[in-house]
Amino acid sequence: xxxxxxxxxxxxxxxxxxxxxxxxxxxxxxxxxxxxxxxxxxxxxxxxxxxxxxxxxxxxxxxxxxxxxxxxxxxxxxxxxxxxxxxxxxxxxxxxxxxxxxxxxxxxxxxxxxxxxxxxxxxxxxxxxxxxxxxxxxxxxxxxxxxxxxxxxxxxxxxxxxxxxxxxxxxxxxxxxxxxxxxxxxxxxxxxxxxxxxxxxxxxxxxxxxxxxxxxxxxxxxxxxxxxxxxxxxxxxxxxxxxxxxxxxxxxxxxxxxxxxxxxxxxxxxxxxxxxxxxxxxxxxxxxxxxxxxxxxxxxxxxxxxxxxxxxxxxxxxxxxxxxxxxxxxxxxxxxxxxxxxxxxxxxxxxxxxxxxxxxxxxxxxxxxxxxxxxxxxxxxxxxxxxxxxxxxxxxxxxxxxxxxxxxxxxxxxxxxxxxxxxxxxxxxxxxxxxxxxxxxxxxxxxxxxxxxxxxxxxxxxxxxxxxxxxxxxxxxxxxxxxxxxxxxxxxxxxxxxxxxxxxxxxxxxxxxxxxxxxxxxxxxxxxxxxxxxxxxxxxxxxxxxxxxxxxxxxxxxxxxxxxxxxxxxxxxxxxxxxxxxxxxxxxxxxxxxxxxxxxxxxxxxxxxxxxxxxxxxxxxxxxxxxxxxxxxxxxxxxxxxxxxxxxxxxxxxxxxxxxxxxxxxxxxxxxxxxxxxxxxxxxxxxxxxxxxxxxxxxxxxxxxxxxxxxxxxxxxxxxxxxxxxxxxxx
Length: 731
Description:
It comes from Ovis aries. This is Armadillo repeat containing 9. This protein is an all-alpha fold and 731 residues long. Helices cover 58% and strands 0% of the residues. The protein has helices at residues 2-6, 8-21, 25-38, 53-68, 71-81, 84-89, 91-105, 107-111, 118-133, 171-190, 194-257, 263-272, 276-285, 293-300, 318-327, 330-345, 351-362, 385-399, 402-408, 412-424, 429-442, 446-454, 457-464, 473-487, 490-498, 500-511, 519-529, 533-541, 544-554, 557-570, 578-581, 616-623, 656-661, 675-681. It is extended. It contains 34 helices and no strands.
């Protein structure tokens, strides 16, 4: 209470100042009356008027100059008292100044009793003309002001229909009223009461800062998880490199025993394989004249390091989760979908991620097996763009893992909904990218390949790839990769044969595209469909060999070998046989797929939590904590160690994110995991103009018309003999 009495005068003065500023006139009178009755003193520093006498004098002088038509005095005061940032940056001030210049330019025409003084009028017109050519030029593109740029050149503007409004009696008073309101607003804003300043500095600003820091914290957590995933990938690449190096050292040591090269040369080769941090210590500590020394040390570096145990994430109440995903608000649905995706994408590869995925699957998180009309999967059709996009992202995350694909593939309902969403989604590019990414990963599984081919998805892909420059890099890469995967099947080749000319035209255009990441998939698709005699005939008729040889002239060695294989296939006279047709067997071998979480799954988040709003793992563990819903499952073993050994185009299903990262597989028709990198390093020439894709100004002319494709257009294909189980390339 003592502190209040000590500052009472200042506090009462602040209240009075604010009431005066906010124009609470009756409240202010009552307040002052009660202060006087109770003998409460008001601070002299704040009880003065907010209206600065100098500003009041300026406003009076400015309005007087406006009324008298004194142009020089008016604009001198205007430039002295109106700050430059407001004059140059505020649109309201710029428009007002433009009309003020018109007012003074035509002042003599409106207020002269007889004929206006010609010299004075010419001076005003010249002043206005100079303004239009300098500062006023900024508004020359505005429709509202465009007619007035002709005013200085019109002999008698009083009778010109474009300027009729300027000479009406109401125009000048209306302009003066706008000027008065502008001045009142500006000087009122410049005399902000101290109470409002204190609130902004110590109240609202703190809230804004806290919210900003909270958002920065969320972003920092996301970045840290991204860096952790990058670190894990680099560590895996390091171990792979050391393993290869050990094999190389074994070979080099064998030559040492055969007296083929000197130990000093062997030492220099091996040391160059290591990072800078290891070179000196390795050179000092290893005796390269002793067989087996270097390779033993290299293999010892691969000994598993005992890492800290990664704890399992808390169990969740999936019944409550799914209920809120179906019945909750759109914002809650979006945050839940985001949190569930983050739990999957940011979990540590291994037991932690497997446990998360198995919990999702065992609790049927997406309601893939639910007969209900209102299910989590139906969120793909939500009216909210954010909910649709985040549902597509979560499904794409599921599809990035072999077990997730197996879960989604148990019912064709998911595939049909994704195909429908792909066809309808035209507003949200990211949503369509994730739907396409999920479908592309689905194409690693034979039954889903068959369904997509029968649904006419090849025709949809060919249609959008006619204009590749209009597509994002992600859409382009995943579309071409999906097309290649479907073309590897005999049913897909037969679909392409129906529109052979158009397919060949699109693929030949893509050969010269600036995005070299797509080259392995274009080559693979071409190589595959050219096994069909009718397509080979169409390709020869359109001069495909000449097009391909354009790329041999300047392409890198790897791409040249790929194209040579395609040319060899083009000139082949072999007919289809039972072996080629046998790839329609539906046996699954997805156990050889590898898991990878692409960084694009978590890019460009649309929603950020407000102050006090839960998101991510905090939302899940605070509101949806469950009891023992996590279930474990034995990990399926793949064939990560198998290496690629040939230069042919890709002939097994791949995914762009996997193909760029690693994990090749070998079978009778080897794939090429190195092709994407070689394509980036090589310089592919552009195709002739007749084959260049066009995005702006028209579509490329196709050798034959493209029919109106329907998602349901398909034919029943004959059953085929069972092929040997192929291995897949997944990175």
